[in-house]
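Let's do one together. I've listed all components of the complex below, 1278 residues spread over two lines.
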Amino acid sequence: MKKLRVTFYPGNITTEAEEGKTILSAAISAGIQIHSSCGGEGLCGRCKVMVKSGKVITQSTGAFEFNEKKQGIYLACITTIHSDLEVEVLAQARLDERPQEQALEGKLKKLYSESEEVTPGGADLTENVYLYSPLATKIYLELTRPDLKDAISDLERIYRHIRKVKDLPLVQTSLTNIRQLGELLRDADWKITATLVQRNGALEVVLIEPGDTSGKNFGLCFDIGTTTISGQLVDLNNKNILGTKAIYNKQASFGSDVIARIIHAQESDGLEQLHLAVNQCINHVIEELTKEHKVDLNNLNCIVCAGNTTMIHLLLSIDPTYIRREPYVPTANFLPVIRAAEAGIKINPRGLLFSVPGVSSYVGGDVTAGVLACGLYKEDELSLLIDIGTNGEIVLGNKEFLISASASAGPAFEGSSVSSGMRASRGAIQKVKINPKNLEISCSVIGDVEPVGICGSGYIDLISQMLKTGLLDKGGKLSGKDCARLRSGREGREFVLFPAKDSATGTDVVITEADIENLKRSKAAIYAAATTLVKHMGLELGDIKKIFIAGGFGNYIDIDSAVNIGLLPDIDRSRFIFVGNSSLAGARSMLLSYQAFIKAEEIAKKITYCELSVEPGYMDEYMAALFFPHTDLKKFPTF
Amino acid sequence: MKKLRVTFYPGNITTEAEEGKTILSAAISAGIQIHSSCGGEGLCGRCKVMVKSGKVITQSTGAFEFNEKKQGIYLACITTIHSDLEVEVLAQARLDERPQEQALEGKLKKLYSESEEVTPGGADLTENVYLYSPLATKIYLELTRPDLKDAISDLERIYRHIRKVKDLPLVQTSLTNIRQLGELLRDADWKITATLVQRNGALEVVLIEPGDTSGKNFGLCFDIGTTTISGQLVDLNNKNILGTKAIYNKQASFGSDVIARIIHAQESDGLEQLHLAVNQCINHVIEELTKEHKVDLNNLNCIVCAGNTTMIHLLLSIDPTYIRREPYVPTANFLPVIRAAEAGIKINPRGLLFSVPGVSSYVGGDVTAGVLACGLYKEDELSLLIDIGTNGEIVLGNKEFLISASASAGPAFEGSSVSSGMRASRGAIQKVKINPKNLEISCSVIGDVEPVGICGSGYIDLISQMLKTGLLDKGGKLSGKDCARLRSGREGREFVLFPAKDSATGTDVVITEADIENLKRSKAAIYAAATTLVKHMGLELGDIKKIFIAGGFGNYIDIDSAVNIGLLPDIDRSRFIFVGNSSLAGARSMLLSYQAFIKAEEIAKKITYCELSVEPGYMDEYMAALFFPHTDLKKFPTF
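Okay, and this is what the predicted structure of the assembly comes out as:
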C-alpha cells in the first residue's frame, strides 16, 4: 500500500498513513484525540475536519451539510486519504484539551493542565463510616538475627515477626520477593519494611524493602467513566486526600458510549487500542498526582478502580463482546485482584489492583461504590441514587432490597458532545443567571477566571434560565426573539453566552440547538429510567425519602434548575442530596477500609437488575420526557 | 578481546571464546557437559581434556600429573585459551552420555537414550496410604445457557456449576483465563472442562477448555538431586505411573556438590546458568516422557518437585548464597506454589509447580518426601531413614519426634565421579560376584545387555567381593596379587572388570584406586552421620527397629555387601528395608493426594535438624569409618 503523509492542525503533527485509510484512523495513530460519538459510523457528525490541501474521497451521510463540503469540511471517520493531506481538526471535534491550553498561553498563566485538579463536590460521605483498615499497610520490622540455634529460613523469620503484630492468615508471597531476599535482609542489617495487602480474608506480603519506609504508604482510587476518568491520591497512613484529578477518557476517539466501544473492540487490535487508551489515561493521572505531591511510585501499592462493566472489561483487556448481545452477559462481575502491572498500570510493580465488583452488564462497580458511599443498603427508609454519567444508573432500595437500572444518557452532562462543553474544572461556567428584563447574563466560573466553557451544572442552570426567560421553548427550540445573543451558526441556531473577546480561549462560548437536543435526550433518559424503576416496584416517587444525586458536576448543582428542566422529579427539594462523584467516594472508602470492600461485595451480590430495554413502559416514559420539563405537566406541579 | 575458535571432540563442535578464558567456560557455552566436581577450582582433576592443537596456558595443581602434560592433557578449568584450539574431552570428563550413545550405534540398537527409563526399585510405599485426591482434577461441565432471567456473568456461571460438585472454597482464577472466556464458552456451546488445582485449602480454576477433556489429566513428580534428576509421569485419573526417567543433572559442569554450585551461583550469570541447567533437564525428561506416552503438554497441569534445599533454590532462581554461610540459613523452606512457567518448566502455561517443603539448608524437601513415603512420622517404633545421594541425609524418629542430619557424601554411589560409573539403567552392572578361587567375575547387567558401566549397587557388591577375595585391603589399596585384571592405568592402579572388547562401549570397564577412595569417603560420611545422629539422641543402633535405605540404586541393593563395606551398620538384616527413590515416591504421593501434601508440610515443620559440622564427635566417627568396613571391628561383629 502506498504511504501518504497527513499533517494535522493545530499542532502541526505529521503522520504516515496508507492510501484509502480514513482520516480518523490516521489521527488515532498520530495520537490526536478526535470525538467520534458514533464510533466511526458517520452518524454523529462530531469528527469534523477541514481538508486544507490534498485529495480525499468521502461518503454521503445525513450528519453533514452540503455547504460544509464546499468549505472543505468532511467527517474524518468516513473520509479516506488519497494523497498527502493537510487537515485542520475543527474545535468541536477536538477531545484533547492541549490545543485550548496552547491558545491560552500568555493570556492566563497555566489555566489548567491536561488533567484537572478537582474539588470533590457534594456531601462528605465517608467520614467515620467504615473501620479504618487500609487495603495496604506497611510495617517496620527489626528482625532477630539468625544463629545456629535459631536458623529458620529468612522468609519464615519475616512471617514470624509479622504474625506477632497481625492477626490474619498470611498467604504466600510471590517468588519475585523471595529471589533476592537473602541479600536484602543482610544488607539492611535485618531492618526492613513489609507492605501487606489484604485480600480474600488474608494478608499478602507484596513488598519487602530495606530500612524503615513505613511512613510512606499511599494508595489510589479511580472512577473510570465512559467519558471522564477521575483519580485520587490518598495517604493511607492518615486518610488524607492529597489530590484529585480528572481527565477525558481517550477511548472517546472510538465512540462516545459503551456500545460504540464494544463494537470497536471487535475489530482487529480494537480491544488492545481501547485497553491502551484507558491505561494511558490512568497512568497520566497517576503521574500528575505523584509529581505534584512528590510521591514515589514505589510507595503506591494499591489501586481501587470503580467503573462501569464495559470500562472494567477494557481496563483488564477482557473481551466485552457479549455485554451488548442479548441476554447481556458480562464475562465477569467479580474480578480477581491482580498485579496493577498486569493491566499496564504504573505503580509499584508488585502493587495490586482491586476492581470494585459489579452487578450486571449495565450496572457496574461504579454503582456498587455509589451505593456503598451513600449508604442506601443500610437505611430503613426508601432511597434512590441517580448517577448522572454517560450511562445514567439508578438504584432504588433500602436495607431490605436494592434494584438497579441503567439508561444510555450520553456524555452531554459531562461536557462532552456539546459544542462549548467541558468538565467541571477551572474556567468552567458552573452557575448561570439570566436577567428576565434585559436578558443580561451573570455567571459563576470555577476559579474565578475568564470562562473557557460550560460544565454540566452550568448547562442545567442555563437551560432552566432560558426556559424561564422564554429564550427556549418546551420543545427545545430557540425562540425567534430579537436578541443579539441569538444567531445562526454553522450548526444551526445558537445562543451566545460569551463572545470570543470575553472568553479565555478566544472562541465564542455558545449553546446550540443541537447541544440542547443532546441535553434533552440525556435528561429524558435519566428521568424515564428513575420513574420506570419506581413503577416497576409498584411504588411512587412520593414514597422515596432521599434522592442522592451523583455525577462529576464539581461542587455544585442547582436542584431547582434540575427539576425545572425535567432531569429530576418534582418532589420536596429537601429530599435531594447532592453527593458529587459517589463512585470515587465509594472506591476511596474501600481503599481505606477492607471492611468496606467486603461490604461492596455483599452489595453487588444483593443488587438486582431491571433491564429497561425489555421493561414495558420505559419507551413511553422516555418519549414523554422529551420536553422541558415533561409532556405531562401534572408531574411537575411546581411549574 | 580477541575472539578465538575452539573445536571440541568428540562431536566436532566449534565455538568462539575470548582469549584468556578457560577451556571449561568455552565448553559450557558450547553446551558440552564436562564433569567439574570441585566447581572449577583445579582440585578434583575430573575435567581432563587433551589439547590436540593450539596454544594454552595452565596452572600447576596437585590434581594432575606431569607426564599427563607431556601427552597434552590439561585440566579444562585452569587452562586458558591463547590461540584457536582443537580439544578432545577425555571420556572420564564427559557428563553428557551422547558420545557413549554414538559409540554404541550399530552395536546395540538404541541401547539407551539420554534420559533413562527407570524401573522404580524397593518396596511399594504409596499403595492405599493416602486418600486419593490428586492436586489437579478435571471436571466436565454442561452449563445452562444464560437468558434474561439468568444473566449472571460467565465466570460466576462456571463457579456456580463447580460449587455443585466440589465442596471447597474457590479462589480467584487468573485474568488470562477470563480474557477470552466469553468467546470460548459460546464457541464450545457451554460445554467445557475446568481444571482445578488444590492449594492452601482452596481450589483454583487453572484452566478452562472447550469440550470434554476430563479423560486426559496427567501430572508429574520429580526428585531433583544434585547429581541425578528423576521424573515420573502419572495418570491422575487412575494413579497409574506411565513412565519414569532419570538424567544426570547438567549443573554438574559447575561442580559436583551443592557447595560448588552455590559458589558458582555468586558469579555473574552463575545463578542463571544453574537455573537453566536444571530446568533444561526437567524439560528434557518431560519431553521424553510425554512423547513416549503420547501425552499433550497441555494436559499436564501439575508438577511436584522434591529436592534438596539448594536444588529447589536454583530451580526457582533464588539466590542460595546464605545456605553455605554460618548459620546456614536458606531463603525459604516453604516455597509458594507458582506457575510452572515461572520456573521455565514447559507444561500447560497455567499449570502449577509445587515444591515439597524442606527443613533446613541441608535437609530439603527430598527428605520430607522420603519421610512421608516411608511413614517414619507415624510409627510407634524407632526408625532410621538413610537416603544415599550426593548429600547423604539421615532421619531418625517415630511419631513422637523426628531429627535429621546431612553429610556430604559425593556422587560416587550415583555413578558419577567414578571412572566407569553410571546410573542404574540399561547396561549398568548392578550385581557382582567374584569367584574366590579363580577370581572370575560374574555380573548381572540391567537389561541383560553387554555392560556399559557400573552403578551404585554394583560398586557396593564389587568392593565387598574384592575385600572378600583379598583383591582389596581394608585401607582401600588394590593388592599386589598376580592377577591379569590388576594393572597400572593412567590414574594409578586399577582392576579391570571387562576389557574393551567385552563392553558395550568399546572401552574398558574398570575400578581404580581413585574410584575406591571416592566410594570409601562416601560410605564413611553416610555411616558417620547415621551413628552420630543416633548418639546425639542418647540411643544406640540396636534400639532402631527399621532402617529404610533410599537412593537411586535401581531395583536392587545387597544389604550384606553394604554392611560388609561399612556403608550400613552391622545389625540384624531383617531390619533393613530397601525403598529405592523415596523422595520420588513421596512426591508422587503428594501429586495424588492433597492430604499427603498437607502431611508433608506438617512433617517439614516437625523435623528438627542437627548440624553435624558443629556436632562433637562427628569428625572422629568419619575418620574411624575411612576403612573397610571400619577401624573398630567390634562394631562389625559379623566380619
